[in-house]
Structure formats: structure tokens, C-alpha cells
Amino acid sequence: MNNKFNLNNQDIAWCPGCGNFSILETVKSALDELSIEPKNIVMVSGIGQAAKMPQYINSNFFNGLHGRALPVATAIKSANRDLTIIAESGEGDMYGEGGNHLIHAIRRNVNITNIVHNNMIYGLTKGQASPTTQKGMKTTLQVFGVVNEPFNPMAVAVSLGASFVARAFSGDKEQTKEIIKQAVLHKGYSIIDIFQPCVSFNKINNFKWFKDNCYYLGKDYDPYNQVEAFKKALETEKFPLGVLYINKDKDIPFEEKLVAYDTNKDPLFKKKRDLEKVKSLLKTMK
User: How many domains does the chain have?
Assistant: First the structure.
């Protein structure tokens, strides 16, 4: 495939059959179809198998600490609003170690796309239960079965009024690609939870399981209705795939609010302020 985001002769450290491969190809296809230049994109990740993704894409990237992708992505977007920022990691990194940052990224509404690879297991550290592991599942650490209810990222995002909330399945590249394109073009914080089988450490939630336990939202579904979106987010017997919620009331991203009271509209990385001007700006923003 002739794609400007491809890297030649790249060794990819994922297990054969891993769902991450299809997400990688889908992300590259989506960005290529959006005609975004690699130099204008920054991929940000934390730690984990999914967090290796930016290393396999021909673009700028920042691979940071476990659970800390979102604050870094927020800082980069705030410094240069012209860049397209994608924060991408697994559910352990984003919902576990990074759960507090997830909440505040939603609250701030920074204009980034947050892609989460959700395989319901910790893959990098050999199969412990992750925040989304199903209750009762036996793992290498929870040998008698997981006792906690799984974290529901879609319900949290919708209830907090996130700007754009969607769920996809790595086995459906076409739908996933269209959702990613829509999320990147959306002005505000966008979260996409992508179901992605782990073929090595999760033998239950495999490709067939996801196909049997998911369904697509119909064309008559209204993503602007927060109450109905929350009801859909709570469905767990079968998980809905598609755009669950778009918050039409969130129209000003975080990075634009930073300069709302500033006459100098240059990106932060170009600004030269003296200390007194900085103090004055902060007082105005309180």
C-alpha cells in the first residue's frame, strides 16, 4: 500500500495475529485519506503494547510515561494549535494508570483525538486483569477470577459530557477508519474505544467473541441525545459500535480558551512574555 505514513523495514514487536496490526493500518489509512502531512501530526503514547503504535507510523511522536499520554498531548496542542494530536495507548495505560488524566482531558475539552486499544487484559506484562477485564475471568494474577466490575469508559465519557464519544472494533477496518476520520476532524476532545483482541493472553475475548457480543448503531440513532447515549453506553450484554455521543454544546476547545483574553494570537511556542504579563494573564483567567 502506497501510504506516506508507512515506515520501511520496520520490525513490529507484536504477537502474530494481534489486533494492534489492523488498528495500525486503519490509523495510517485514515490519516492518509484526510490528506494530513506527517510533519503536522504528533502521536503521543504512554507504556504498553498499544503504546508502541507511534513508533510504527511515519510522523512526529512522543512516547512518555505510563498513563501520562494525555497531559503531554494537552501540552503539545496548547503550545502549537496547528498540529494534529493523537493520544494512543491501551486501556490499562489510559483507563488505569491514566484514569485521572482521562477525566480532566474530558473536562478541559482539549482538541485532540484519544484512541484507546481495549483488549480487556494487560498484554505487555503477561496477562493480568486490566480495568476493563470482565468480572469472573481468571488471569495469571487473578487466579480465582476477577472480582471487580469492569470500568465503563463510554459511560464515564458520556456522563461527563465529552465532546465526541465512539466505540469501534479492530476487526472492522472500514467502520473504524471512518470513525477515526470523523474524530480527527471533530473540534474538541474525541475518544474512540477500540475493541482489540489479545491473541496471547486473553483467550476469551477473541475475534469471534467481539463479533458475537457487539452490534452496530442504526442509521436512525441520534448521537446528540446525551440521555440516550448514556443508556447505550450502559449496555454490556451486547456492546454498541459507532458514534455514541457528540456534545454540540462544547464548541471552544481548551487551547483556544488559553488565548481568549490575549491580544497576541500566536501559538504558545512563539510567545515572548515578560513575567508581569504572564501574572496579569493568569489573574484574568481565574
Answer: 1
Q: What is the pLDDT of residues 89-135, one digit of tens each?
A: 999 999 999 999 999 999 999 999 999 999 999 998 889 999 999 99
Q: Give a yes or no: residue 263 inside a domain.
A: no
> Are the CB atoms for 30 and 181 separated by under 8 Å?
yes
Beginning with the edge strand found earlier in the chain, give each strand of the sheet holding 239-246 in spatial order.
60-63, 41-45, 84-90, 113-118, 190-195, 164-169, 239-246, 214-216
Give the predicted TM-score (pTM) of the model. Answer: 0.90
For residue 95, give the DSSP letter: I
- What is the number of H-type helices and E-type strands within the chain? 10, 8
Q: What are φ and ψ of residue 63, in 5° steps?
A: -100, 110
Cα distances from 145 to residues 138, 148, 201, 202, in angstroms, run: 4, 9, 14, 13
Q: Residue 151 maps to which CATH number?
A: 3.40.50.970
What sign results for the dihedral spanned by CA atoms 80, 184, 133, 18? negative
Contact 238, 214 (CB under 8 A): yes
Amino acid at the residue 37: E
pLDDT in tens, 168-184: 999 999 999 999 999 99
